[in-house]
Amino acid sequence: MATVTFDKATRIYPGSTKPAVDALEIDIEDGEFLVLVGPSGCGKSTSLRMLAGLEDVNDGAIRIGERDVTHLPPKDRDIAMVFQNYALYPHMTVADNMGFALKIAGVNKAEIRQKVEEAAKILDLTDYLDRKPKALSGGQRQRVAMGRAIVREPQVFLMDEPLSNLDAKLRVSTRTQIASLQRRLGITTVYVTHDQVEALTMGDRVAVLKDGLLQQVDTPRNMYDRPANLFVAGFIGSPAMNLVEVPIADGGVKFGNSVVPVDRDALAAATDKTVTVGVRPEHFDVAGAESDQGLAVTVNVVEELGSDAFVYGTAKVGDETKDLVVRVGGRNVPEKGSTLHVVPRPGESHVFATSSGARLSD
Ligand SMILES: Nc1ncnc2c1ncn2[C@@H]1O[C@H](COP(=O)(O)OP(=O)(O)OP(=O)(O)O)[C@@H](O)[C@H]1O
Ligand SMILES: [Mg+2]
Question: Is 41 in the pocket of ligand 1 (CB under 6 A)?
Answer without folding.
Answer: yes
